[in-house]
TrEMBL record:
InterPro entries membership: Cholesterol_7-desaturase, Rieske_2Fe-2S, Rieske_2Fe-2S_sf
GO MF term (any one): 2 iron, 2 sulfur cluster binding
SUPFAM superfamilies attached to this UniProt entry: Bet v1-like, ISP domain
Protein name from the UniProt record: Rieske 2Fe-2S domain-containing protein
Domain Rieske: 11-111
Taxonomy, superkingdom: Bacteria
PANTHER family noted in UniProt: 3-KETOSTEROID-9-ALPHA-MONOOXYGENASE, OXYGENASE COMPONENT (PTHR21266:SF60), IRON-SULFUR DOMAIN CONTAINING PROTEIN (PTHR21266)
Record Pfam families: Rieske
Record keywords: 2Fe-2S, Iron, Iron-sulfur, Metal-binding, Oxidoreductase
Transmembrane segments: none
Length: 349
């Protein structure tokens, strides 16, 4: 992958906060490496993972007692702002390393350029929800393949075994999609397959599964809101929300960071939310794991959809390529139309 430094103008979750202790940790975003460490006050910091001297990886160094990160090769040391010094030639100037902003939220460390405003932190839409936890999963596939997989539920009967519908109900799926200037919106509704584990969230046989999601590109992320409805139309007690961030690490790998939430409209059940939210997160973890296990099968899918016979469930895919390039990578002209017509087949050109 050609390094794409512009993507760090967006905040990306990159590491669980508890994973960063007294030793530096290397993370990658879009082909560039960063050395994360905690300074003398315990605050997280990030530098480009290349010492300005001879490009040795700073993530292989140590954090000194004064909180500065020391290069493992010649001992150059750097503070959280990247200000560097050479112990062998103290008078040498211009020894600084490039530094980045790190924000700790939801138990994770979020990386961005120094001048990226805090207002650019992605909105989790957590109002009224209880946070159940977060986890990360490695996908051995490029960003576009990982994103396409999570942009349709047509594969649900064949890749998953808990959420959603099964093969006999594949023809009973209600589907809608909208391609907008800065996002895509998708709606699915279908009979929930039999799965005893779903009883934990008050789901019963015969219920309908409903998944509504929005995908945005600043950074690349999808927010899935899932609920269940009884055959008579009455809602089941819990609504889950999973915010999934797709972070490209290299040209061949993507890291998914998932933040899980749960809410209920039934006051009597609210005391149970902390426990139920953990159960909902565990269920989300199983579903993402199913995708991660399968994704290697399609990891070599080309970036272009040219030649593919796309169906109605693939409506967001082509448009999302444009948004990925324009918003995430910062390339191409700004679109002027508010709504883009849905596409059923890949363009021929």
């Amino acid at each position: 992958m050609e390094p794409t430094p512009k993507v760090i103008r967006h905040f990306h979750p990159v590491l669980s906060a508890r994973a960063l202790g007294t030793r530096p940790v290397r993370v990658e975003v879009a082909g560039r490496a960063y050395a994360l460490f905690r300074d003398g006050t315990g605050q997280p910091a990030a530098l480009a993972d290349a010492c300005p001297h001879r490009f040795a990886p700073l993530s292989k160094g140590t954090v000194r007692a004064d909180g500065r990160l020391q290069c493992p090769y010649h001992g150059w040391r750097f503070d959280a702002q990247g200000r560097g010094s050479n112990p062998s030639q103290p008078e040498l100037r211009h020894c600084d390393a490039r530094s980045f902003q790190v924000v700790e939220r939801y138990g994770y460390l979020w990386l961005a350029e120094r001048d990226t405003p805090l207002s650019a932190m992605p909105d989790m839409g957590e109002e009224g929800y209880v946070f159940g936890g977060a986890f990360s999963t490695h996908f051995a596939a490029p960003l576009h393949v990982s994103l396409d997989n999570f942009s349709e539920d047509e594969h649900t009967p064949y890749v998953h075994t808990r959420l959603g519908w099964d093969d006999p109900n594949a023809g009973r799926v209600e589907f809608e999609a909208r391609n907008l200037e800065d996002r895509t919106e998708v709606h699915y509704r279908a009979p929930q397959r039999p799965a005893p584990i779903m009883a934990v969230l008050g789901v019963r046989d015969g219920d309908f599964f409903q998944n509504d999601w929005v995908t945005r590109f600043d950074p690349v992320r999808s927010q899935y809101t899932i609920c269940w409805v009884a055959p008579d139309g009455s809602p089941r007690p819990f609504i889950t929300r999973a915010n999934i961030f797709f972070v490209p690490e290299t040209a061949r790998t993507t890291r998914l960071h998932v933040f899980s939430f749960l809410r209920t409209e039934q006051p009597l059940l609210r005391p149970l939310l902390p426990v139920a939210a953990r159960a909902a997160m565990a269920l989300t973890w199983w579903e993402v794991r199913d995708d991660a296990r399968f994704i290697t099968t399609v990891a070599d899918t080309p970036y272009s959809h040219k030649g593919m016979r796309l169906d109605r469930f693939d409506a967001p895919l082509v448009h999302q390529r444009r948004l990925l390039e324009r918003i995430y990578y910062g390339a191409g002209p700004k679109m002027t139309g508010a709504v883009v017509p849905l596409t059923r087949e890949a363009p021929g050109g």
